[in-house]
């Protein structure tokens, strides 16, 4: 494995007596699509929060991005270093057009001026294959899949090195999931490393080069996706213990 673009070392996060993440360590190579899976409540989104500093960092452990330690840094600094993310719940400005939404992201998250924002917005739209005739439509009138495209484009407009996606396939139909598969491959082919949390295992298995499984805040398995999903402890985490 080449020098990692992202690395966590024994990161942990507790909320009172609840240990949400416990001693999780992994590395992501540049240009990789790295999948993260696990049962509900296993700590996947908390791990994303720890890495990005939104809304909190770790209680213990270290996070390294492009050779620099970033845990403890403000979230906006981490983002401007080249690490962007999306969230489980789609968020848009309902009264703004898709084009205006990207401009806001480019200016306030990417630190760009208006001309640069317009250029980057068009590039991001093209990368996620957002239909040109829908770009001036109010975000509230977009379809579920178009809102997903817009959410991803908003994260891409600052040209991040890493794109972290939290369950982007949620609420999509099977054809839309297939379209999302293509979208993710195109983004990755453009040189963007991707971290992907996803409950739709068909998508996760299709696009990921490696897979990390969490369970009850702990690292359960890591490796080639099909090999990982065949491990007895991973099967047990998803399906429960077999009774006689």
Give the structure's gist in a few sentences.
The protein has nine helices and ten strands. The chain has helices at residues 44-52, 75-82, 98-108, 114-127, 144-156, 174-189, 201-207, 225-229, 232-239, and strands at 6-15, 18-28, 33-37, 60-65, 68-69, 83-85, 162-166, 193-197, 210-215, 218-223. It has a six-stranded mixed beta sheet, with helices on both faces.
How would you portray this structure in words?
It comes from Taklimakanibacter albus. By secondary structure, the protein is α/β, with parallel strands linked by helices. It has two domains: 1-85 and 162-244, Rossmann fold, CATH 3.40.50; 92-159. The protein has helices at 44-52, 75-82, 98-108, 114-127, 144-156, 174-189, 201-207, 225-229, 232-239, and strands spanning 6-15, 18-28, 33-37, 60-65, 68-69, 83-85, 162-166, 193-197, 210-215, 218-223. It has a six-stranded mixed beta sheet, sandwiched between helices. The chain is globular, with a radius of gyration of 18 Å. The model has no long low-confidence stretch (mean pLDDT 92).
């Amino acid at each position: 494995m080449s020098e990692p673009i992202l690395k966590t070392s024994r990161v942990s996060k507790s909320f009172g007596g609840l240990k949400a993440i416990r001693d999780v360590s992994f590395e992501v190579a540049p240009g990789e699509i790295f999948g993260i899976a696990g049962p509900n409540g296993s700590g996947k989104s908390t791990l994303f929060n720890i890495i990005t500093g939104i809304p909190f960092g770790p209680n213990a452990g270290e996070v390294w991005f492009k050779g620099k330690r970033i845990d403890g840094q403000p979230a906006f600094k981490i983002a401007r270093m080249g690490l962007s993310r999306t969230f489980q719940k789609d968020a848009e400005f309902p009264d703004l057009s898709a084009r205006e939404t990207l401009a806001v992201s480019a200016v306030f998250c990417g630190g760009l001026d208006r001309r640069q924002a317009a250029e980057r917005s068009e590039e991001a739209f093209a990368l996620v294959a957002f239909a040109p005739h829908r770009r001036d439509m109010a975000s509230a009138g977009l379809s579920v899949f178009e809102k997903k495209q817009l959410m991803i484009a908003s994260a891409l407009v600052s040209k991040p090195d890493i794109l972290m996606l939290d369950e982007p396939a949620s609420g999509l139909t099977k054809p839309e999931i297939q379209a999302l598969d293509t979208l993710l491959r195109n983004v990755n082919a453009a040189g963007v490393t991707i971290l992907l949390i996803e409950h739709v295992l068909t998508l996760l298995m299709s696009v990921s080069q490696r897979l990390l499984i969490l369970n009850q805040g702990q690292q359960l398995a890591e490796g080639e996706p099909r090999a990982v999903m065949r491990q007895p402890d991973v099967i047990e985490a998803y399906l429960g213990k077999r009774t006689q």
